[in-house]
Amino acid sequence: MSIERLSQRLQKMGERLAGVGNHDFCPWANGYVYWLKQPIGWFVVGAFASLLIALFLSPHAWITFGSLVIVMMLGVVWPWAAVRGMRGEIAFDRRRCHEGELVHVRLTIRNAWPVPLWGLAVEKGFFTVGHDTDEQPVTALASVPGWSKSEFVFEFRPSRRGVYPHTIPELVTGFPFGLWRAQRPVTVSRDLLVWPQTTTLASIPALDGEISDVIGMLFDRPGNEGDMIGARVYRQGDRLRSIHWAQTARRDTFIVTERQAAARRLVVVSCDVDAFRDDGDGELLENAIRVAASVTREFHAHHAQVRVLIGGLDVTLEPGLLGLHRLLDALARYRPDDTLSRATDTSDALTLRVTTSERQSAQTVDTHRGRTRYILLDPADVPVARNGPTWIKIRGNANHSEQLRSQWERLCHDSTAS
Questions:
Q1: CA dist 116 to 99, 175, 201, Å?
Q2: What residues form DSSP beta bridges with 305?
């Protein structure tokens, strides 16, 4: 037997033993013994055992019983009293950020007791389910001086989009013995909107031979694109950047320029949320939302009329940066469990659908008109379907940004070369 086979067998045996050791053989008894997971539970058991010994066997056990009771009382009363005399407030240094960006969080604690507070931690609200447990502290403090207002700044790097904190954070302390933890809610003065991470794309590919099939043609009607076609008196709501300062000085009133308008083609970016509902930790769905946001951002930057459909979310982007920011805000607040996907007629629009190979095989594709393009996201072990006009195929959760960028550049190059 080779060393490699032997190591594989030993590894399998270890996994089986670990599975047996962690298997719940008596789930019906969990409600009766879960309290033993807390350190104070074993102190209660020890105090009860010493009480029985003191009553029936030896009076010397009263010393052990009294010591355990004193330790338990001190370990419970001290943290309970500590949280009653403190107030906490959290504020982020910015209103919005992207996934993975560094954010500074200011924690203000008011201690009304004359003695310092030790062993404080901030928990809950900062880590998403499936990545980290809610009991994991986001920061810990050694001590807070007595009769003081102290400010602490710590760094936080959100790994997923969303509104942070997800739940109300808590100041937690178990000092001095860690037998029992007391907590107090923390006030959040300003929450944080975390946008999905987007991939910077170079351009947009020509779909039916010309780039104007997407961004539209310019014509001589008042709009905000193209060349200047005239001037007129300023109206309420006109952009200040459109003011013609030379004509304004000559006429002693605000004069603005008028530019050409673009006949834009509607582009619908649709994310098939139902295709990713069985995803365990939800990372594949998050990657699908990131891909949809990246594609939307690029088409919007080229002045296309873009509509985004993600589950129950339906957003038509306004021109300019404000429209993109409103979409990203909506994506940060979107939760997959809020509403089911709605059926929407997009037959007259160019549709870019983010889904999986399995869902693409079950859907009807309009190959004659070429109005639907598919961007497929699949786990690494799932074969990619070959039917339908598939634009991009992304495999696995790793390096999805690089896969999207490289394949997008290839599409742009191929459309230019043809």
A1: 37, 12, 53
A2: 266
At 167-202, the pLDDT tens digits run 999 999 998 888 888 999 999 998 999 999 999 987
CA distance linking residue 333 with residue 166, whole number of Å:
10
Alpha carbon distance 342, 354 (integer Å): 15
Give φ, ψ of 141 to 5 degrees.
-120, 135
Instruction: Give the separation between CA 334 and CA 155, rounded to whole angstroms.
Output: 25
CA 153 to chain centre: 22
Residues sharing a CB contact under 8 Å with residue 179, sequence separation 6 or more, in sequence order: 38, 39, 40, 43, 71, 72, 75, 76
Distance of alpha carbon 321 from alpha carbon 371, whole angstroms: 27
List of residues 6+ apart from 170 with CB closer than 8 A: 122, 123, 124, 183, 184, 185, 186
User: Residue 288: which of 275, 302, 305, 301 has the closest Cα?
Assistant: 275
Alpha-carbon distances, residue 324 vs 373, 382, 404 (angstroms): 22, 33, 20
- First vs last C-alpha separation in the chain: 59
3-state secondary structure of 321: helix
Confidence (pTM): 0.76
Sign of CA dihedral 349, 335, 326, 291: negative
